[in-house]
Amino acid sequence: MVSVRAGGGASSPWGAPMDRALGLARQAAGRGDVPVGAVVLGPDGSVLGEGANRREADADPTAHAEVLALRAAAREIGEWRLDGCTLVVTLEPCTMCAGALVLARVERLVLGAWDAKAGATGSVRDVVRDSRLNHRVEVVAGVRGDECAQVLESFFRARR
Fold first, then answer.
1. DSSP secondary-structure letter at 111?
2. How far apart are alpha carbons 139 and 136 in whole angstroms?
3. pLDDT, tens only, 64-73
4. Spatial CA neighbour of 41 closest among 90, 97, 86, 89
5. Which residue, 28, 16, 5, 68, is CA-closest to 151?
6. What is the sign, positive or negative, of the torsion defined by CA atoms of 23, 27, 32, 34?
7. Torsion sign across C-alpha atoms 24, 61, 31, 73
8. Is the pLDDT of residue 10 over 80?
9. Which of 144, 128, 139 shows the shortest CA–CA distance to 90?
10. Rounded CA separation 53/34 (Å)
11. pLDDT tens-digit series, residues 33-78
């Protein structure tokens, strides 16, 4: 079984990709979408795809940052299998997105903030490490977690 490990701050190897994901999250907030950003890195660390939530902008319930980033990466490499790839995301994925990670055969998930209401990669549920599925995803958690949480808190505070 794959374990959850702490990811570190801005100086960790995940700091720069998380910075890119945070920028995407802020773009989503500017459009009125929940500020979540995601980046898919290839095995060599290159950016293969990225996405920011677009549910409101596109009136699409599946337009989560993670799904959009996975689609972009698959288009980039011309293959649905994202073997050896890493998804870096500002908020713990929901059940739909966790399932997409498993189906795409993503090797690693790097997340910022945990989602105590809908998280499906270790908090509320743990879809990515369900032994009944055909693939498991390594989880690196808490990369710039406070900063990722603050972006979300600011967004929702402004809406209240």
1. E
2. 9
3. 999 999 999 9
4. 86
5. 28
6. negative
7. positive
8. no
9. 144
10. 6
11. 999 999 999 999 999 999 999 999 999 999 999 999 999 999 999 9
